[in-house]
Amino acid sequence: MPENTTAGGRAGNLPPETRSFVGRRRELARLDALLDPAARPGRLVTLVGTGGVGKTRLALNAARRASHRYPDGVWFAELSPLRAQGLVGFAVVEALRLADRSTSPVTEVLADWLADKKALIVLDSCEHVLPGCADLVRALLPAAPGLRFLATSREHLGHPCELRLRIDPLPLGDGEGARTGGGPPGDALDLFAQRAAEARAGFVLDEDTAGPAAAVCRRLEGIPLAIELAAARLGELSLGELDERLGERLPSPLDLLAAGLDEGPLRHRTLRTAIGWSHELCAPLERLLWARLSVFTGGFDLAAAENVCSGGPLPAGRIAALLERLVEQSIVLRYRTDPRRFQLLDSVRDYGGDWLRALGEERTLRLRHLDHYRGLARGGCTEWNTGRQLLWCERVITEHANLRTAMDCALSERDAPTALRTAADIGFLWRHCGYLREARHCLDQVLTTDPAPGPDLVRALWARAAVALLQGDLDCAERWAAVCTAAAVEQGDAVAVVGAAYVTGGHLLLRGRLGEALVVLEGADLLPVRDDWLGSAQLQVRLAVCLVHLLSGDFTGARAVAEEVRAESARRGERWAGAFADCFLAQADLAEGDLPAATRNARTAVVGHSLLNSTLGVALTLDVLADAVVATGDGPRATRLLAIGQRIWERLGSAQMQSPDLMSARRAREDLVHEKLGSEAYARAYEEGLAMSYERGIAYAVEDVRDS
Q1: pTM of the shown model
Q2: What is the C-alpha R_g of the chain?
Q3: Where in the numbering of this chain does the Orc1-like AAA ATPase domain appear (predicted)?
């Protein structure tokens, strides 16, 4: 998956600000100093505080302010969706957009890539995976001198170099300045006023509202989430009613302290009470929906909510209106970048999860969640080789956290057929959408349990072998390809047998055994191409044939096959195989001396691959485009393209998929450009290419050479 950029075009994946940020000037100043790469302390800074106190929002603002200091990016790893201890490294790989195709342990992959980088990683919501976070930090800090971590947690990580910054609630103020016009309100009161204006048009702090508003903030201990939930109620309550009801609901801080609660539990209880009060004010069906929505991770859309959460007293037709009510009350948040998607903040989701367990519905809802996302994955595999392919790729990326949660549920239920079917579908999609390591992880778990023969097993075996091919793990690919072929033959599906030829011929191709590969690949029957995952496998067989011809020097044969695949791809509206066909046609054009066609086809391929997050395809095509550009005499541009491609190959984890032919071609290409430019000019242009973000590199690659 490609990296994103922060404001100013810098590398990173920080999410956009969803609401205005209030206060925290002292904390931000402290973090400005601690996150300065030149500062000796601060390689691990942990913001520690109770739930709802605003740790995540503060961390994101501090990270944005520091982004110009980290040329290799500021990266946000959201850990709250994780349900198991062993997944922290996966989350960081995903955050860094490392399309990892190696088979090394995840900490080694991260350490190798980060070794010479100057980067900041934000680990958000560490408290439920503290051992995994501590282990990862312990492994990476010594290996990457330019790396710093900013963590948020309710507890510290326990690392020796950790600097803990306690995040307290917002300063309260007394409302006097707002009442008299003599000065700004306190931060807590300022936050209340801003959120109250969103709930009730025209709300302002004045001599009538400042006092009661300050009283509300005091009752809520200045906890931002509690203040926001309370302010949202001004759409239906007057300010006086809000203050009165909170006074009835919340015990005084003195009472809690007298009961022996220290400051941390006191504020936790205040937040829980405020959330509970919001829960009590909800209508019964709103409460039920809130509880059921807690099974989602990483957001959800209306269709998912209707499918998973309906039932019993909650009909699907009521969910849209109930969801809007929860949004109005700030219990559910709408994504600013995609208003069709929603999410629950961690503390609010945790409260809903507690109620779901109390209702005795947790397992039922988790199984419904599994069924929904298993059906989504099945649909993606069924329509992968059609004009809906790009939409499915976008959906798989958007729903990655929910798919991971569904996969975890399928494995924990110990229902072998369901787990196999789920892993086969999700594994196939993850293989094509950039999540190779997680695809391998889930497929290995189901394939080591002696699964039953059938189409699900063939699909899982094919996906596992295909993952190994892209990771350059050719021994593993050979082993799984043999098992896949045997299973396909046993199933008796002729198209499945054709699909198995791809993984068998593919490992022979990458080993440089081109003649043997061609025998296997051309021996596959040319059957009508299907719409599903097997149709994609059929096209990949033909692409492998094309690549054998290219590496053998048969450019006429390569062109014929590439044009065949491109025509079939265009007829179907699919893009994955079509982009590879464009890349291979560019190579044939180049060999035949048609530089304009080579450049045009390579640029088209880069666009197609980038749309589907096929970083492997982008890297392969940039190598070809560099060849075309250097042939036109533009050595500096070719060098920059090589550098952009090299940065992607580094993220892929295995250079040129460990193919000796592809690696030799890459070295020859670099030597040619270096000789044309000379060492000094080559080094300068190469550094310029390395400095480009992924998006800037793609844009540079597809610019018309005549205009660059």
Answers
A1: 0.84
A2: 28
A3: 21-121
Angle ∠(486,490,495) on CA atoms, nearest 5: 85
Instruction: Give me the CATH number covering residue 106.
Output: 3.40.50.300
According to DSSP, the residues that pair with 148 across neighbouring strands are: 120
Do 443 and 569 lie in one domain? The reply is: yes
Give the three-state DSSP class for 10.
coil
Please list the residues that pair with 45 across neighbouring strands: 150, 163
255, two tokens: 């009472």
How many residues appear in the chain?
708
CA atoms within 13 A on the CB side of 551: 24
d(CA 268, CA 263): 9
Contact, 50 vs 271, CB < 8 A? yes
Q: What angle, rounded to 10 degrees, do the helices at 455-470 and 416-433 form?
A: 30
Dihedrals phi, psi of 147, to nearest 5 degrees? -95, 140
Phi, psi angles (nearest 5°) of residue 76: -110, 115
Q: Tell whether 236 and 291 lie within a shared domain.
A: no
Clarify whether residues 385 and 476 are in a common domain: yes
Looking up tokens 């991260």 gives 110
The pLDDT tens digits for 630-675 are: 888 888 898 899 888 887 877 765 565 556 777 777 777 777 788 7
Order of strands, sheet of 119-124, starting from the edge strand that comes earlier in the sequence: 74-78, 119-124, 147-153, 44-48, 162-166
Picking from 456, 455, 454, 453, the residue whose alpha carbon sits closest to that of residue 410 is: 456
Q: Identify whether the C-beta of residue 521 lies closer than 8 Å to the C-beta of residue 544.
A: yes
* DSSP codes, 307-318: HHH-BTTB-HHH
Range of the domain at 342: 282-360
